[in-house]
Amino acid sequence: xxxxxxxxxxxxxxxxxxxxxxxxxxxxxxxxxxxxxxxxxxxxxxxxxxxxxxxxxxxxxxxxxxxxxxxxxxxxxxxxxxxxxxxxxxxxxxxxxxxxxxxxxxxxxxxxxxxxxxxxxxxxxxxxxxxxxxxxxxxxxxxxxxxxxxxxxxxxxxxxxxxxxxxxxxxxxxxxxxxxxxxxxxxxxxxxxxx
Length: 195
Hints:
By secondary structure, this protein is α+β, with helices and mostly antiparallel strands. It is 18% helix and 17% strand. Helix 2 (110-121) runs parallel beside helix 4 (175-183). The longest helix has 12 residues, at 110-121.
């Protein structure tokens, strides 16, 4: 029975905030990602995952303050809608997108950014993010101005800084979901494949 296929148009019933990140794409809901690998991901923990397979998957599942434009190779806004820096490039102020929610409906705020960066700065948790965000042996200091503004104070000017706070290196984590695990000292073991 050959019946003509009807085109399904998907409409999101939620209105977008005026400062939302939109990426013009065409496609259809569903589908799959196919990749050739020689091993399975070692972890779905985006901070401690080291294998290329895990990092590639985690980059698809998480967002950072910035995102890398693959065409221009320049950082662009992601969870941070904008930023400015001091003239000496040591103090960076990030303005976060508002009205974003985690998948469980809890709001995204500056507290999530500070929580994630605290994990990155924790010397007990070894990660690639910690390696690239340690400058001359010193960590970046993060503070909160308000619910949607965070400030990074660098120990010295660092050219790739914006590139290394993207979703591929430091995807921001929900504090309300992982804080208890972190406080119990079990964050490095969280999100493993054998759980």
